[in-house]
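ok so for the tutorial part 2 we go from a plain amino acid sequence to predicted structure tokens. step 1 is just haveing the sequence, like this:
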Amino acid sequence: MSGVVYYFSATGNSLYAAKVIAKKINAEVVQISYNTEKLYNQNIIGFVYPTFYWGLPEMVATFVKNLNIKGNPYIFAVTTCGLSSGGALGQLNDILIKKGKCLHFGETIRTVANNITKYRIKQKSIQKLVRYENKKANEIAQAVAQKQKNKIPKVGIISRAFYQLYLKQYANSDRGFHITSDCTGCGICQNICSADNIVLKNGKPVFKHQCQNCLACLHWCPKNAIQWKNTTVGKQRYHHPNISYHDLKIKNK
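step 2 — the prediction. this is what the tokens look like for a chain of 253 residues:
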């Protein structure tokens, strides 16, 4: 069985799910970033990604639009989310339908929500949600291994409208970031940015306004030196306990 699981992940929730599924179906795990290496002639193609504003991360949408899918592979998708996935599966299916393909199977996994620009992470819920994700990912892996099919929900009007807010502001959302004096210039933020949006100048990160609004830089900074406006000061950061910085580091950086 030849397969590939493409993933987009900031704090590791989606990568962890992708790894669990890929192991079950003996597939390669490939990161979606600005320099993704595309694989062809696969019998199974999977996409695992977080929900952004009840929809797809822009980079995932663009990647799938440009992906040349040959033959008739079994295609599945998994989206991780804090509360609701909205139209995140339906949007992907719509893109595939325009390419003459479709999602055969789609599922949502509730994970630790990491958008601390909006709310705080509940420490008590982390272990519970991590255990749940592992259980759910294994169940999905079993379904994918059997090439099960299910009905993909359509994108609702409210989901579509909410998602437009993301599309209008994602690239320039980095204008809200500022760097504190705690920054050591370690370069982790630059190396973990899927959008290649951060460059170090004089030992400090500078944002290039091509952001995906994933917050990987904010969560992985070892000194909590990256803040978004005043809303993240003093708030706990998060990354999946079974995923390391090196797991998510962008290739060739």
